[in-house]
Specification:
about 475 residues, alpha/beta, Alpha-D-Glucose-1,6-Bisphosphate, Chain A, domain 3, 6-stranded antiparallel β-sheet, 16 helices, 21 strands
Length: about 475
Amino acid sequence: MIKFGTDGWRDIIADGFTFANVRDVTQAICDYLNGKKDKISSARPKLIVGYDTRFLSKEFALEAALVAVANDIEVYLTNNFAPTPAVSFAVVDIKADGAILITASHNPFRYNGLKFKASYGGSATPRIIGEIENQYLVNQKKGKKPLSLPVSDAEESSLLKNFNPKKRYIEHILEIIDKDIFRGCGLRIGVDPLYGAGQGYLKDILLSLGCWVKEVHNVVNPSFGGLNPEPIKENLKELAELVISERCDIGLALDGDADRIGIIDAEGNFVDSHRIFAILLNYLAGGKGWNGEVVKTVSTTRMVGILADKFNLPLFETSVGFKYICDRMLSNDVLIGGEESGGLGVKNHIPERDGILMGLLVVEAMLASGKSLKELIKSLMDEIGYFYYDRLDLVVDGKVKIKAIKNLDTLEPKTICGLKVDKINKRDGYKFYLADGSWLMVRPSGTETVIRIYAEAPSINEVKDLLNEGRMFVEESG
């Protein structure tokens, strides 16, 4: 059974993620596009197909493109690996009906995946995903085989076109940021694309703005050098070393498809996604004067709510997954939306997370304030309070995962770590709100055989205690 999780369909290469399954899923997407009454183009649909640097991603992307062409869809296939935000922007720029991206984002190297972006250049909404999943099930029930054709026939049909999204994407990004603030700044910046599809993009933009840039992990390595391409503390040790050795002002890291951001400050310290969200919200609303709704997922910091109150901005909370934030961005005037994993999106752009743009905006916030990143964070924390966060991922067997989640549903502790439980939120996992404002959350990953435990508290030691308590909840439930 193929099912879209929090951000597309992902599975282990050669196990669930196979050429046959990619063809089946692509056929369902093609049926959805051909059946749409509100096509962007009046004639046949247009579909963009892009891919990341993972093992066989290019070949999977070509297979998807051939299925689409066989379904009489005009296909724009990227001529190289490309970041998800660049491909998503191309959907709007080319006026396409959607995009297929072959990527497993930040998952371990043995995974690959398929994301579908809709005509507005953002994550497909739950409604669209539901229609595609339903079409897939109908096709399976009917025994419908996916259409396809040889590459030579596709090229002769004129429906298969190659293109490079980089130039137009960078032009668009340079329209959003304040280039004058960067002029003559001379900042020294380390960049780590983690062997992913963001190679060259952030570096080239920063160089064009007059920054000194050094990039690491900027070759194609399908095993990601033994790392998971996720911009979290344990994966950014080499970037931290680079920042210190080269006396950089900041280090910017991207995940495997460049839609998430991770940051290292000038002293080599990791800056978590919650602080990044807070810095950006404070700068966009307070520094640039942007207005709009603030959207956060349930696993995201309290700092966002405090800052929304400060600027008198409405706050809306969603389940985990940027598709829910995107859905809100389509129907409301959203200033910024973000999730715990480092995926953030802002207005005046596509309704999509973009690690490249977020990194640039953090640098812009530093320059506008005249402060280092550490100073910027300290001034913000002095104002709104100090919050510390961490996450623990427990790798579990699929059956254990199901059993643990089922048993957690009956868990209603009165206290956790000696603190009264004020409220339990079961909207997406299990979030326990504690009397001092701390919280603990346990939820299954939507893309991996992992149970995630999240915690936020006034001190890092209290965070560790909460995570240990969460681990015991899972172990006792499984």
